[in-house]
Specification:
A hairpin with a 2-residue loop joins strand 5 and strand 6. The protein contains 28 helices and 13 strands. It is elongated, with a radius of gyration of 42 Å. Strands 4-6-5-8-7 form a five-stranded mixed β-sheet. A five-stranded mixed β-sheet has the order 11-10-9-12-13, sandwiched between helices. The longest helix is centred in the C-terminal third of the chain and has 58 residues.
């Protein structure tokens, strides 16, 4: 904008000023050259059009001649007295609009012109009109329609609205949820920006005309012939990807294997919306919807019959939480809200919406369900989601038989009541609001055939249509239905336009995730016991067979979570912390191995003694014990140094002698920062023990107590006792041929240590998660205090283990490991997260994520000794495998379903093309060429 302001702001303003310049002269018309003095006094000026792009001043006759076909343009007349252009209309210039005869006068009509009000894109204006009254002429409303205007009344119209302004408002209403009141207010301001209140109000006429226009346009777009009575589904925009028997399904689809039957299933969701209600106000009862059950609301007549004659189902006690949808909330108004159904592609289903009087009572939802699924009753499988499915589905079939058995013969829109096999799920967002015992039974993460459906499509639809809720609350019943039907149709149309690109995008994602999840699961299974894995797979098959049957739910266990008694107790955690601190046995091997291993062992021992020294309390017994340990350590340090001098140091000297350099780098033959940077290595931060030692030395500088001096003396005796390893030398030395075997051995040993560090990290993270769950299950100050202490200890151990691994990885890089090593990766803090153990921990979007890279290897579990720790980890591994086996299966189902949806979409579009072309041929034969033209346009 600064560029515009600097270079073009002034030019733009001058150009706009130039458009307002006065006429060059007022002597003659620049267009026809007629002298203005020959004209009547009131017309002796020049005019211009504010809507024509070629601005050219002209006289009254010229402006009227050029605007015979554009009577609603904004005309401006130059006022020499006022010195500016004044706004006019063609009516102000004496123009009369003649309908018929190509704009010429109808000799038959000898009456005076009828004064009419026209609502158009530029405002509201008066314009006298003369209709054609010849024998065989169209009726007055039809003449207006022929000239692009919609009559506000159908007997003797005095107001008309241009089709262009109705199309403009319709688009703004659907896209921006603009209401009629604000749009008419804009048009009145466009007519007179100073005193819009004096412009004629045509709100009622425009509102009524828009109702008629929407309805006729909907009939037009769905190929409903003029005068034909609407039937169920006539005004519904169908989803091309959903299964429609005899339209877009494969031949012999009924014979598909049961394992893949989900690809031919209808995936739908049910949900209520208490924003789209209606206020308790008096309205015209005769104002019924023009759509009459042919769009998305159920057949009102059938619904009233059902409520009157069908027995009311008994109140069912909830075994889960008391959801507001069941009736525990507060509702008000003549209509408290709506309940509806969508497919998984966010298409509203035909005849799916029911007005609620209070809550989402089962009888309302039952009617909406059967009404919406009438065209899908011949499918073999339905995949449904509903926020309260755990309760709703239990007695569904019984309710349908009892309620509709006595009223079915009185209904026109419902003929079938026997549902196909139904798999009942709960949307992923609402699942966490259910009790634990019913979550896994209705989770779309685990239900076979669910794919990656989230079950929350209606929430997205409501998010759009809730923007018009404040308008529809004030409307009469019929008007409200028609407006909402129109919005739902528009949403469906948008989905149709984007269907191909959406399916391609979804398939690409599904293919990628199916590959990643399969690869991850294969890596996990590689480390599992084969017999145990086979048993888990058998349990999974049996569980999937039972979960789709609501009758089996009472005895169904949950393999996707560890048993609730599995988390480790505080005492177990304490014991595990103590065991983790014990030293491991050291391997034996060659002399090179002995050298490297003895140095590593010596460093590990020094670290342990240093920790003991820092914990020294000052008593003589402890001092004697530490002195004995230090003496023993010094003896082993002397032996280690002798071994180092005879083996490793000899190789170092050989490497140094072989170098041909004039000036050695700083610190040579040891490493330096420049040498490390060449290998992408930075100096590792101090370990917790080193940090403590450094802080103690600073603190003890002014402390002359015997205890402090004893500790300093013992710490000093530990310094400089460990000989250097190959990784401590400069790269020019450690990569010399004489050092190859030493480097190889040290790298192998450090890789083992890195593996151990990762195993310890996995174990500590898992047990830390267990302790968190234990804390949530217990209460009281005592238990919380103990658990908090254990958690803090766990966090310290986890941080120390992370630091140890990072230090080892830096050493491995120094020893020649590549930066992008597949096993020893960079460890970020975000990588150190536990995998999900319990359903309540799952979050939206988790299905698109894999566990961090540290969980690609479960071999650490096999190394654990028998006991509580191993039992807990095995339980966690089992639930982890079940979860990721389900995740892999859901993504594979998603791939198969998306491929089938692509086939159905392609077939559906072909069917639609043939349908509209057949209509075009039939309408041409029926002498309806305009309808035939539109039919061919809809094909393209």
């Amino acid at each position: 904008m600064s560029y515009f302001q600097k270079h073009h702001e002034a030019r733009a303003q001058r150009s706009l000023d130039q458009r307002e310049r006065p006429p060059a002269n007022l002597k003659q018309c620049p267009k026809c050259t007629v002298p203005l003095l020959r004209l009547p006094p009131q017309w002796r000026t020049l005019y211009r059009c504010g809507d024509c792009h070629q601005v050219k001043d002209c006289c009254r006759d010229c402006i009227l001649k050029t605007h015979e076909e554009r009577p609603f343009d904004r005309i401006y007349a130059w006022s020499d007295e006022s010195g500016f252009w004044q706004k006019k209309t063609v009516a102000d210039l004496g123009h009369v609009w003649y309908l018929g005869h190509g704009g010429d006068i109808c000799d038959t009509n000898r009456s005076n012109p009828r004064p009419m009000v026209f609502v158009h894109e530029h405002g509201i204006m008066d314009l006298p009109v003369k209709f054609c009254q010849c024998i065989g002429a169209l009726m007055e409303p039809e003449q207006l329609l022929e000239h692009g205007c919609w009559p506000a009344t159908w007997r003797e119209p005095h107001t008309a609205i241009t089709l262009n302004v109705m199309r403009s408002y319709h688009g703004l209403e659907l896209q921006g949820q603009l209401n009629v009141h604000d749009f008419l207010a804009y048009l009145r301001r466009a007519t007179d920006g100073t005193e819009p209140q004096h412009v004629k109000d045509r709100y009622r006429e425009f509102n009524n005309s828009m109702c008629e226009f929407r309805h006729v346009r909907a009939r037009h777009r769905h190929g409903v012939l003029p005068g034909r009575t609407l039937k169920r589904g006539d005004l519904v925009v169908l989803c091309p990807a959903c299964p429609h028997p005899s339209v877009n399904m494969r031949p012999r689809w009924q014979e598909r294997d049961r394992e893949y039957r989900y690809t031919d299933a209808l995936h739908y969701g049910i949900d209520g919306n208490f924003h789209l209600g209606s206020k308790a106000k008096a309205t015209d009862e005769k104002d019924t919807a023009l759509s009459k059950g042919a769009a998305y609301f159920v057949n009102t007549k059938d619904f009233k019959t059902y409520l009157k004659h069908a027995p009311k189902p008994p109140q069912e006690t909830s075994e889960c939480n008391q959801f507001d949808a069941i009736g525990s909330g507060k509702y008000k108004g003549k209509v408290s809200g709506v309940v509806g159904l969508t497919c998984r592609h966010m298409f509203m289903l035909g005849g799916c919406i029911v007005d609620l009087v209070t809550a989402e009572g089962y009888r309302y939802v039952d009617f909406a369900l059967l009404s919406a699924l009438q065209d899908y009753m011949y499918l073999r499988l339905l995949m449904g989601t509903y926020d309260i499915h755990c309760q709703y589905v239990k007695n569904l079939r019984k309710r349908l038989r009892e309620q509709f058995g006595v009223v079915l013969d009185k209904l026109d829109s419902i003929t079938e009541t026997e549902l196909p096999e139904l798999v009942a799920g709960v949307g992923k967002y609402h699942l966490c609001m259910h009790k634990e015992e019913c979550r896994f039974k209705h989770s779309l993460h685990y239900l076979p055939g669910a794919g990656m459906t989230d079950g929350e499509t209606l929430e997205r639809v409501w998010a759009v249509t809730n923007a018009i809720a404040r308008r529809t609350k004030e409307m009469s019943a019929g008007h409200r239905h028609d407006v909402l039907n129109d919005h739902y149709s528009d949403l469906n149309v948008r989905r149709v336009h984007n269907m191909v690109s959406t399916l391609v995008e979804k398939l690409d994602t599904a293919l990628d995730m199916a590959s990643l999840t399969a690869e991850y699961l294969a890596g996990v299974e590689k480390e599992l016991d084969k017999a145990e894995l086979a048993a888990w797979r058998k349990q999974e098959r049996e569980w999937k067979q039972k979960v789709v049957d609501i009758k089996e739910h009472k005895t169904l266990d949950n393999p996707y979570e560890p048993p609730r008694d599995a988390p480790l107790s505080s005492q177990m955690i304490l014991q595990q912390l103590q065991d983790a601190s014990k030293a491991r046995g050291q391997p034996e091997g060659s002399q090179e191995l002995s050298v490297v291993q003895s140095i590593l062992s010596l460093r590990a021992e020094r670290c342990g003694i240093r920790s003991a020294v820092l914990a020294y309390g000052g008593d003589e017994k402890a001092r004697s014990k530490l002195a004995s340990q230090l003496e023993s350590f010094r003896e082993r340090a002397v032996a280690c140094r002798e071994l180092h001098e005879t083996r490793l140091e000899a190789a170092v000297k050989q490497a140094v002698v072989g170098l041909e350099v004039e000036v050695y780098p700083p610190g040579f033959p040891g490493r330096n920062d420049d040498d490390d940077r060449a290998f992408g290595v930075t100096r590792a931060p101090l370990t917790p023990t080193e940090t403590t030692v450094l802080a103690f030395r600073k603190k003890s500088a002014s402390n002359s107590s015997k205890k402090a001096q004893d500790i300093l003396e013992m710490l000093d005796s530990l310094d400089h006792t460990s000989p250097p390893l190959p990784s401590d030398y400069h790269s020019a030395v450690r990569f010399h041929p004489a050092m190859t075997e030493f480097v190889k051995i040290e790298r192998a040993l450090h890789e083992g240590q890195a593996n151990e560090a990762l195993d310890e990290l996995r174990l500590h993270i898992t047990t830390h998660l267990s302790l968190q769950h234990r804390k949530q299950q217990e209460s009281g100050v005592k238990n919380n205090t103990v658990n908090d202490r254990r958690l803090q200890e766990k966090r310290e151990v986890i941080n120390a283990t992370k630091g140890r691994y990072r230090e080892l990885r830096g050493i491995l890089l120094v020893l020649g490991m590549e930066e992008n090593h597949k096993t020893y990766k960079v460890l970020d803090d975000d990588d150190c997260k536990a995998f999900t153990l319990y359903e309540g921990e799952k979050k939206l979007g988790d299905s698109y994520k894999l566990p961090t890279w540290i969980w690609g290897d479960f071999s650490f579990a096999r190394k654990l000794p028998p006991g509580d720790i191993k039992n807990f980890v095995k339980g966690a591994m089992r639930s982890h495998w079940f979860r990721h086996s389900a995740l892999k299966t859901r993504w594979e189902e998603e791939v198969n379903t998306r491929l089938e949806e692509m086939f159905r979409t392609w077939t559906f579009f072909g069917w639609q093309e043939e349908l509209w072309l057949a209509r075009a041929r039939a309408w041409e034969a029926d002498e309806s060429p305009g309808a035939a033209v539109l039919a061919r346009r809809y094909v393209h």
